[in-house]
Protein: G-protein coupled receptors family 3 profile domain-containing protein
Amino acid sequence: MSTSQLISYFLMQLLANGVISLISEQQKSARIEADGPNKIVLGGLFPVHAEGRGEDERCGPMMLEKGIQRLEAMLYAIDQINNNYTYWRFKMGAVVLDTCASESYALEQSLQFLHYSCGPTADISRKVTAVVGASNSVVSQSVANVFRLFKIPQVSYASTSEELDDLHKYPYFFRVVPSDKFQVEVILDILEHFQWTYVSMVISKGDYGENAAQAIQKKIRSSAHYDICFAAVEVLPRNATQKNYDDIVDKLSSFENVRVVVVFLNEDKISELLDACERLEIPPGRFVWIGSDGWGTKERVVRGHERMAAGSITILPKRYPIQAGFDEYFKSLSPHRNDRNPWFKEFWENRFNCVFSRETAARRKQELCTGSEDLSKVYRQEGLVPMVIDSVQLLATAIKKMCKEEYRFCREPEKMDQKLREKFLRMVENTTFNSSQGSQDMVISFDKARSIPVNYSISEYRKINNYDEEYGYRIIGDWNPNRRLRVLRLPEWEMNGGIVSHCSEECPEGQQRIPDSKTDMRCCWTCRPCESGYYLPDPRKPCEKCLEGTVPSSDKKSCIEQRIKYVGLDFSSAWALVPLVFSILGLISTSAVLVIFFLHHKTPIIMASGRELCYFILAGIIVCYSYSFVALSEPTEVSCGTLRIGIGLGLSICYSAIFTKTNRLSRIFEVSLKMMKRPSYISPESQIVICICLVLIQVTLTVLWLIITPPDVPIQFIEAEGGWVTFCQLDGISLLLGLVYNMFLLILCTVYAYKTRNIPENFNETKWISFTMYASCIIWLAFIPIYCSAVKDYKVQSIILAMSVSASGTVILACMFLPKIYIVIFRPERNVRYPTTSSATGTGTSGSGPPVRYLRGSSKTQDQLQQPSPIFNKSGSGSPFLLRTNHIT
Structure:
């Protein structure tokens, strides 16, 4: 023994030799005296009465079935052993005490066993060898600490707390019922089977309820198998008042979606809870109660509340009623002949609502008990009676084996030392015996954790018939750790449409659950469709992406193989025909302009527009129109690389030439006003070199871009396309890199177009250049938001990109070339040299004569001859800047 154990042992000895003698004189006990040489005494702890409401009332009302039937079951089992001495070879006695379902009161009572064993008046015939009990887990835990010190084995017939599995803490504790750790799994399997995912729970304050609640919530958190949430977990205090029950029922009713309530309460509290439901006028059937083994199949729980309890599901360790013997024994009991049970008369009075005292009968106006009332009419075997008998048989079997090995164990119990008690403990642990339950040939033994084979019965409390409002329990299923839940018959409410208790409706096919952030529960969610290319094999998990080359099935539950398509040319679809036809017409028009320019390249209007730059611009327009064929072609690394080059190349050719042209006009006009010398780099050769250099900047940027980020052909699932497609994707950064330089050129062209907008030279060409730049700006300002808004539709993006580039080329072609073509073809009389007029005050020359000062607003004479300026017209120039002379009249 450790030091603490020695101290505790010494204190217990003092209590046993002093204080206990006072307690024992005041308390009742049921006894069986053992006669003969081999005398073994068993202790018994039973809740004959319920727990009282305080120190003034330590014991409450009598528990008719739970107390008396179990107590009599122990006495009955001992009688069977004593009546078969030739087999057992020993006689048994018993000292049975009332625990009043209270741990403190039970502890006081259990000390009496020590008085019988080691007190000053201890009798050899009353040496307590082992104890049967107790019922409640908290009571068993309390007394187990005492029995451990004195090495007295304890076998419980009803205590199921998981804490009692601790063999180090409770080395002398045994039980013939399974641990609550299995009960938790049974309840969760029931909830899962009926798809109840949103429930409430009511538990009692203390180890039984709180430990069960923690275990069930821990199991849910640690297992992905159970999608169960608790809307409310309500705790009933030990001495709960009517208001406590009303508040809890009111809270349960506030959750409209919750139809199922799990209860871990003892029978008294369950009855009070049902009473509160009736008091608050809760409609019968509003809740389906899931009762633990504290409810089991007890009639007392539902007595008076049958309608409110109807439809409840309860669980209880599987047992079979004692088919022969006990029922007849109990029915034959009479209050006049059952002297060994001091509480039997009280039981009789409570069962038949009568009293034996004439004075009490007269005072309470109750009937007088005769003792001949028919007990068989009100008798129904209590559920744990077989467990009590098994507990006695377990100890009897171990005692028989012990007596064979240790003769003095039965002959000289007063000499039972510590070593002998430890051996008896091992004997109990290794005992195997045949259960007396029903007609089943059940063999019960303990494993290393002192657990017996686990089996549970699942019962429904229901209305038996509609004629006399009779209710009762019926078994609807069973459970064991290997087979798990087995439903043998459906409950009444399941056959009438079922009970729904969940937080959120199931999502439609192909929609995943998104957890509700407000409740933070995995059983509360909103529904959201899976994205394109995703499927949902398990509705409880997020959508998963289909592998490349597969697409979601119609129900979104799996992926199926599909040929990879591409967003490209499809001449049967309108979306491809529109940009292609537009580009083809543009190429035809551009080619026609080229032919006309070539055929009329020596006419004044063609020469005045700068033929070399015009050809350069027309080449850029052809590139722009050709871009549509690249944008809509089958995606490859080559085509995707060409797409990057083409998006900026054609426009840079056009804008470089227009910038060079407008810059040249601006410089010439400014010099003409100031009578300066001829500007530099205005010859056709210089202009072409400048254009090529500007275009090379765009080409260099594009090549660097292709080196840093090589083109690839991404594969993506597009639901609108019905599967996987390949395409050349230009994201925002790629598009910006391809167009930023052209936007810079466009801005410069627009600035110069605005500066030269009023120069009337060359058939008002600067005005048309201005129109071109303004229209180009509008096109690209509209393009960017439209392209970005179609980020998930690559067909639309391809169309927008192709049409925008083609539209830019079309604007340039229409504004800068069609006016010239119109004059060349339809107004040849205007295709002559004209004198020019400055729109502002300026100077000019006529022939080789002196400079002439021009006045703003002077009149124009179209039939005057145009003379080339010696300053600005170089011999052989194909682009003379012509000045118109005005005479002042």
Summary: Residues 637-674 form the longest helix (38 residues). Residues 779 and 807 are 8 Å apart (CA to CA). The radius of gyration is 52 Å.
